[in-house]
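Re: the multi-chain job from yesterday

Posting the exact lines I submitted so nobody has to dig through the queue logs.
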Amino acid sequence: MDLRAGDSWGMLACLCAVLWHLPAVPALNRTGDPGPGPSIQKTYDLTRYLEHQLRSLAGTYLNYLGPPFNEPDFNPPRLGAETLPRATVNLEVWRSLNDRLRLTQNYEAYSHLLCYLRGLNRQAATAELRRSLAHFCTSLQGLLGSIAGVMAALGYPLPQPLPGTEPTWTPGPAHSDFLQKMDDFWLLKELQTWLWRSAKDFNRLKKKMQPPAAAVTLHLEAHGF
Amino acid sequence: MAAPVPWACCAVLAAAAAVVYAQRHSPQETPHVQYKRLGSDVTLPCGTANWDAAVTWRVNGTDLAPDLLNGSQLVLRGLELGHSGVYACFHRDSWHLRHQVLLNVGLPPREPVLSCRSNTYPKGFYCSWHLPTPTYIPNTFNVTVLHGSKIMVCEKDPALKNRCHIRYMHLFSTVKYKVSISVSNALGHNATAITFDEFTIVKPDPPENVVARPVPSNPRRLEVTWQTPSTWPDPESFPLKFFLRYRPLILDQWQHVELSDGTAHTITDAYAGKEYIIQVAAKDNEIGTWSDWSVAAHATPWTEEPRHLTTEAQAPETTTSTTSSLAPPPTTKICDPGELGSGGGPSAPFFISVLVTLALAAAAAAAGSLLI
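And the result, structure tokens for all chains:
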């Protein structure tokens, strides 16, 4: 077969597309599988990166909301924001979560949080805030993809959202400006707490997976190359 | 007629005993306790005695001067700590004890200092408190822990009076904890409270069993090992990272190394032969603050055994004897510029070495011309 320059670029593009969708491909012949270890590590690293990013984002956003939201001692009761996914869990329950449930809870939480964040972005008043929020949303999307990759590697199905339960960002009719700000406050707080929890979740998963020392050989079903 | 006499005797004796008993255990004999503020004035009445009753006051068995009396009342001004004691007033003539007061001089409590810490995350945390200045009288403390609106139990520490422990029921909570303490004594009361997030109070205990050892045949290395603190309940799911610092005893500047895992490290830039001091600290990988520094370990890197002096002196003689009869006496230093300016003594060897150099140079030039 006589290859021309144009063909090789086409090949490269196709290869990139295949590799991009790799986590979603169910059947893949791998010998000396490293296991999900490296992708769990990558997910862990992403939670740390996001937590760091969130710290500056939250600081800026809370200053934008103004006092009392940006005061360090602010300790309001948890009213409203009922639909936010809560990171808090009973200690024994958390310890005894099986891997699938642990991963599913993380995936579902971030899906919801991402949706709320996107709504927050739409409402944000300044361009700088919108830029920061958009950047964070992209990173959070990356985290979701990473969690999805781990679940696929372990053979767990991705949770499918039930129709009608998708969180939609519509301010309630009786929602005052103050209550709206309270919701924003709790969203950022919950996001931060989830990122701390995820670091611990993925630590636990990392310890349970045993990465083999053997080298990886990846066999791709190459059609027509 | 003998029978009624012993009966009468017994009756009289019994009555006498009862009177003596009553006198010894009368109500005014149990001291009345009073607390008074340092620096204040106090007037102690002699029980129910009239103002003009003739009484004598004693403190802890020592007589008090009559000029302190205002009638039958004892007046003490500007109370000091030394005034604490048992004050008793006696009927002047009969020495019958009329009244006793146990006086305690002290202060009302100032705002207590309260702090909480979790060195056993995720099991729980503890809070400890103290008063910044002493009150000199007994105090009672009351601690309440609120998690949002839920009241949590703070169990008293079995050994330490000023500490109590709380067990985490839920992890990863967005709601803050509020710990309040109130302290009160007979002269007043005070209170304070602190609020914090679950993650901010995490601070492990320092690493244990820090051991530093020299590495054989490596004069610049020290091998350091340690263990995770035994109070940290779950290092598998909640791994710790470590911070190591070391310096030779003779210097003040520390070197630092941060280690994300493992409980061993080899220092490779130690100064040869110098004793080192090494310490390690620990922190949860993601949350909280660094622990205090561990107990220090000391070690000196491996040094080579020194060689015997006589063998060193012989070696240069055998090599210099063949070059010239004017060879300088064997020295351990080849060239020391510092010696040049120091006067007459060293000038002789220097002159000789210059001659030797010139002679060698001349010999080399001659040899070179022969070869051409």
